[in-house]
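Hey team,

Sharing the Purple acid phosphatase run so nobody has to redo it. Sequence (441 residues) first:
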Amino acid sequence: MGLLSFLTFPLFLSLLWRLIIVNGNFSTTLEGPFKPVTVPFDNKTYHGNAIDLPDTDPQVQRTVQGFEPEQVSVSLSSDYDSVWISWITGDSQIGGDITPLDPESVYSVVHYGIEGSQMSYEEVGYSFVYNQLYPFEGLQNYTSGIIHHVRLTGLEPSTLYQYQCGDPYISAMSDVFYFRTMPPSSPTNYPRRVAVVGDLGLTYNTSTTFSHLLSNHPDLLVLVGGISYADMYLTNGTGSDCYPCSFDESPIHETYQPRWDYWGRFMQPLVANVPTMLVGGKHEIEPQAEDQIFVSYSSRFVFPSEESGSSSSVYYSFNAGGIHFVILNPYTYYDKSSDQYKWLEGDLYNVNRNVTPWLVAVWYPPWYSTFKAQYREAECMRVEMEDLLYEHGVDIVFNGHVKNVTHALWSWHRNRDYYETAGDILYIVREPDRCLANQGN
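Structure output:
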C-alpha cells in the first residue's frame, strides 16, 4: 500500500500554501498564463513497501462501551457557516450470519458552542447502517455499527468551536472535540494551513504522516483517495502486497470492512478536530452485490453534494475562504452527456473569481504521469474534461495514486505545449479514439 504523504510531503504542501496565500508570491491563472516550472525528481530515493498496522495494534482497537461514540469526524459543508459531525456507535459484525443494529435504538445529537463558552446549542441528525454483501459462497458479509451524521448551521467564520456528540439520554456522549470554521470567502481570506494527503492507508508510515499533521495544526485536511485500503484484504482478514496474486481466483474483488473501523479509530484525534474532505479513489470503489460501489465511502462520511448541486457523493464542491475546491471522480460517468460533466460545467460557470480567486480541482489518478504502471490510466477522463478546466482557468490540480515516486503537483496553464510534473517535461499526445464507451467500469 502506498503513502503519498511521507514526512516531507505535508511540509512541502504547507510551505506551498503559505507562499501562495500568506505571502502572496504566486498569482492565480487570472493573471496568467505563466511558464511552468519543473522540479527535478530525485530518482535515487526509494521508499519501499509500507507495512500495515495489525488489527492487534491498540490504536485500532475498539475502546468505547455500548453506544458511546467512536470514529468521530468533522467535514465541511459548501461554505463556512456549516459543518457536518459524523460518528459510529455500536460494534460492526462480519461473518455468514449477521444481524444489523437498529438505528432507532440511539439518538444522533451534537452539543456545541464557541470555545470557552457553554455548549448550549444542540442539533439532531440522522442515523443508519450499511452492509457489504457478496453473492458468493465462502465470502463473509459485513454490517456496520450505527452511523450518525449531524449538520451544524449558522456558524461564525474563522471561529473555534467545541462539541460533544452522542446520545445524552443514555449518557453515551463523546469527549469534547474542537474545530475551526473556514474564513468567509473573499480574495483576502484563506485558511492558515491546508494539508493535502493521498494514499494514506493504515501503515507504520501512516503513523509518521499522522504525527506530522497533528503537530502542524492544519485548518483543513483534503484526503485525495486511497483512504483505508480495505479493498486490499479478503473478507477473512488476510491480504497481500500483490493484489492480482491474491485476488485472481476470487469471483469478486473482496474487501475487509473492519479495516475502515480500524482507520476511523486511528484517525479520530485528527479528523475529529480538523475538517476533513475525502475524495473517492480506486480503493474506495469496493464492488459488492447488485453492482453497488462506493458504499462504505459514501456511508461513513458526509459530503456537501446537495449543498453544491451535485447528485452524487463522489463529485462535489466547497469553499475554503478564497479557494473554491472541485472534487471529481473518474470511476463514474464523466462524458459530456453525464451528470458529472454537466454538474462540473455548471459549478465552474457559477464560480465568482472576484470572491474565490483560487480554483483547485482534485481527483485520484493523475491525467499525466511518467510512472509506467499507471500510465494514461485516466486518459479518457482527460479527453472529456480537460478543455473545460482550462476554459475556466483552474489553478492547481491535486492527484494521488502514483505511490512509488513523489506525486505530481502541477498547475494548469493556458499554454498546453508542456506541463509541470515532479519528474520531467512530458509532451501531450492526444488520442481520443482510444477512449471507448467503457466509463463507470
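Residues 8-22 form the longest helix (15 residues).

Ping me if you want the raw files.
A.
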